[in-house]
Automatic annotation (TrEMBL):
Listed Gene3D superfamilies: q2cbj1_9rhob like domain
Domain of life: Bacteria
Keywords: Dioxygenase, Iron, Metal-binding, Oxidoreductase, Vitamin C
Cofactor(s) it depends on: L-ascorbate
SMART domains (UniProt xref): P4Hc
Protein name: 2OG-Fe(II) oxygenase
UniProt cross-references to Pfam families, sorted A to Z: 2OG-FeII_Oxy_3
Taxonomic classification: Bacteria, Pseudomonadati, Bacteroidota, Flavobacteriia, Flavobacteriales
Length: 211
């Protein structure tokens, strides 16, 4: 009993996380600008590019890891799964913030998030990801999808690469601006990545999952 009271006294409200929760409750998605600072984006982008240049990425597939199929007519990105246990210094910054969010969501919303999976993603010019839902017929553990953009500051609307989220009422186009994070309900909102018309679109994408 004393321990429970102590934990309650320890709780400090986080205005940013509260805004995310309010957004998810109201519209099932949240767009957060500057979730990562420009300095954090720089080190994460450098980490991504170092591994991309070392040819460690692979062509993305559709389906989950037990039922993968490569289909360039559906998606065209290249990915590299992240390993938190062996994270470099840049990735430790990323996971620290994500874990703070997960702990807050579990404590305030009782979501029961027990697992997470994230990968780097690079979309070269001309690639895209057609409209889809982030869940599988044989696996419904994904609860929240998270996209963190690592592009350069000069990303233009003319470059394309918008994330389009489809609600019951409208389609929302979201530019992949550096430091911006988009969080949405994996099993509810269909979405797509529009064609990249110039440059390369860089991000970290992942899911918060129940067991």
């Amino acid at each position: 009993m004393t321990e429970e009271l102590f934990e309650q006294l320890e709780f400090i409200e986080n205005p940013l996380f509260e805004t995310i929760i309010d957004d998810l409750l109201a519209k099932q998605y949240s767009i957060v600008n500057d979730f990562f600072s420009s300095e954090e984006v720089d080190v994460l982008r450098h980490s991504l590019l170092a591994k991309y240049d070392a040819d460690r990425f692979k062509k993305s597939a559709i389906g989950n890891r037990t039922n993968e199929e490569i289909d360039k007519t559906i998606r065209g990105d290249f990915i590299l799964w992240m390993d938190e246990a062996n994270a470099n210094e840049a990735e430790k910054i990323f996971f620290k913030k994500i874990n703070e969010l997960v702990n807050y969501l579990n404590k305030t919303c009782f979501l029961g998030i027990l697992q997470k999976e994230f990968h780097y993603a690079v979309y070269p010019t001309g690639t895209f990801y057609k409209r889809h839902l982030d869940t599988f017929q044989n696996d419904d553990r994904r609860k929240l999808s998270i996209v963190c953009y690592l592009n350069e500051d000069n990303w233009l609307r003319e470059n394309g690469g918008e994330l389009t989220i489809y609600t019951e009422k409208e389609a929302i186009d979201i530019l992949p601006l550096p430091g911006r994070v988009v969080i949405f309900e994996s099993q509810v909102l269909e979405h797509e990545v529009k064609v990249i018309k110039a440059s390369e679109r860089m991000s970290i994408t992942g899911w918060l999952k129940t067991r």
